[in-house]
Amino acid sequence: MDALTTALKVAASGLEAQSQRVRVVSENLANAQSTGNTSGAEPYQRKTITFASTLDRVSGGSFAQVSDIGRDSSAYPVEFLPGHEAADDKGYVKMPNVNVLVEMADMREANRSYEANLQVVKQARELISMTIDLMRNQ
C-alpha cells in the first residue's frame, strides 16, 4: 500500500471519529435541560466518547476509532424549582450534568480536527491526481 493511500485511510478514520464526536456533543447540548418526568427522577446523563488508535502493520498507518461511548458519572447539579414535575419533596430538581461551555469547546475542537482531516484528504487527492497527470504526459 502506498503512502498516499495510507494517508487517505488515516484521514478518513479521523473524519469518522470526529463525526461521531460531534454527534455525541450535539446530543449532550440538545439534552442540557432534560430533567426527569417524575419527582426525584434522574435527568439526562452526559455522554462521553473515548478514542483509540490502531496500528495497521501492513501500511504502517495509525487509524483513529471510537473505543467507547460512555456516561459521565459526575454529580447532577440541583436547582430549586418547586413547581417542576421532577421536583422532590423539598422542591429541588436534579439537572443534567452537562456544562454547555464545555460542550461548545468540545464541539469547536471536534470541528477543527474534522477540518484538518478533510484538508489531508484534499491534499492527498490532489497529489494522486498530479501523479496520474505526470504519468500520462510521459
Automatic annotation (TrEMBL):
It is found in: Bacterial flagellum basal body. Keywords: Bacterial flagellum, Cell projection, Cilium, Flagellum. GO terms for biological process: bacterial-type flagellum-dependent swarming motility. Residues 91-134 form the Flagellar basal-body/hook protein C-terminal domain. Residues 8-35 form the Flagellar basal body rod protein N-terminal domain. NCBIfam families: FlgC. PANTHER family: FLAGELLAR BASAL-BODY ROD PROTEIN FLGC, FLAGELLAR PROTEIN. The basal body constitutes a major portion of the flagellar organelle and consists of four rings (L,P,S, and M) mounted on a central rod. The rod consists of about 26 subunits of FlgG in the distal portion, and FlgB, FlgC and FlgF are thought to build up the proximal portion of the rod with about 6 subunits each. This is Flagellar basal-body rod protein FlgC. The gene is flgC.
